[in-house]
Automatic annotation (TrEMBL):
Chain ranges passing through the membrane: none
Keyword Ribonucleoprotein: yes
A Gene Ontology BP annotation from the UniProt entry: methylation
Gene Ontology CC: cytosol; ribosome
Protein name as it appears in the record: 50S ribosomal protein L3 N(5)-glutamine methyltransferase
Species, as recorded: Aestuariivirga litoralis
Keyword rRNA processing: no
Domain Methyltransferase small: 141-223
């Protein structure tokens, strides 16, 4: 029984090293699927242990030989067993996820934040020295985060563009409740506006210097075949139609009407690059890579969209 296994572990294991080893063995034996902020059993076990103990999550090595109190051992054992028995991603179990070291509250009302856009925002594409998409971040005074989910990208944008007001829109009222928690935790209620609606319906008549979007982009067949871990996330946050690009097409069709002159759209689409290029041969997408992705995020300007006459 899971409770018995957790009890035995909490009584026999004593250090963080012990729990890391046990968690890794159990995770591998259970053939867990990873990808919700971590990409391996080792990384997820380390994250779960560190976050549960309220320790910095960037490096477990300084703490490996730390001996744990009985309540700490019990909590870790229960969380490790829960990760296996429920197949729930670790981020949901501890209600926390990170982007570039910045913490966000998460629960099952939103997908676990892991957008490549978050990485790109800190890569110098905005305000960097090497041919940035936007040279001067102080020139950006309005940003829209479309399909905001937990609000993480909107919050990152507020930090990156200090003079900008940020609108964060989502069709899911549940997701906006989570976004409100994060906006309040980051003390940004005066700069990040949460709006309810279907894509641009939420911001009718408004225009922006920058639009960022990580919309649902998974094909229907792929969603149906999701492993259990991904099944804990809201289906509407993943499902992008038969080929995954329904919402992306709608965004492209209307984005120019909501961009100021000189503005642009940064959008994540997953693995649909080839289909999108075939559908829009008249668009000159700029594809941006990250350490873990290639051609899954594009940039396109208002002027390029207008010239294509979509």
């Amino acid at each position: 029984m899971p409770d018995k296994l957790a009890s035995e572990a909490s009584s026999q294991l004593s250090t963080i090293r012990d729990f890391l080893r046990w968690a890794l063995s159990e995770f591998r034996a259970a053939k867990l699927v990873h990808g919700h902020g971590t990409t391996s059993a080792t990384d997820e076990a380390a994250f779960l242990i560190l976050e549960a103990l309220h320790l910095p999550v960037d490096d477990i090595n300084p703490w490996l030989d730390a001996r744990l109190l009985e309540p700490e051992r019990q909590r870790l054992a229960q969380l490790i067993r829960a990760r296996i028995d429920t197949r729930m991603p670790a981020a949901y179990l501890v209600k926390r996820a990170y982007i570039h070291g910045i913490p966000f509250y998460v629960d099952e009302r939103v997908i676990v934040p892991r957008s490549f856009i978050g990485e790109l925002m800190f890569s110098g594409i905005f305000g960097g020295e090497d041919a940035p998409l936007i040279e001067d971040v102080s020139n950006v005074t309005s940003v829209l985060d479309l399909c905001t989910g937990s609000g993480c990208l909107a919050i990152l944008a507020a930090g990156l563009f200090p003079d900008a007001e940020v609108d964060a829109a989502d069709l899911s009222a549940d997701a906006l409740e989570v976004a409100r928690i994060n906006v309040d935790e980051h003390d940004l209620a005066d700069r990040v506006n949460l709006l309810h609606g279907d894509l641009f319906d939420a911001v009718e008549g408004r225009t922006y210097d920058l639009i960022i979007s990580n919309p649902p982009y998974v094909a229907g067949g792929e969603v149906a075949a999701f492993p259990a871990e991904y099944g804990h996330e809201p289906v509407m946050a993943h499902l992008g139609g038969e080929d995954g690009l329904d919402l992306v097409r709608r965004i492209l069709a209307a984005a120019a009407d909501h961009l100021n002159p000189g503005g642009g759209l940064l959008c994540e689409i997953g693995t649909g690059r080839e289909r999108l290029v075939d559908d829009y041969p008249q668009l000159d997408f700029l594809w941006l890579d990250t350490e873990e992705s290639e051609g899954e995020v594009f940039w396109i300007t208002r002027e390029q969209l207008l010239e294509a006459e979509l």
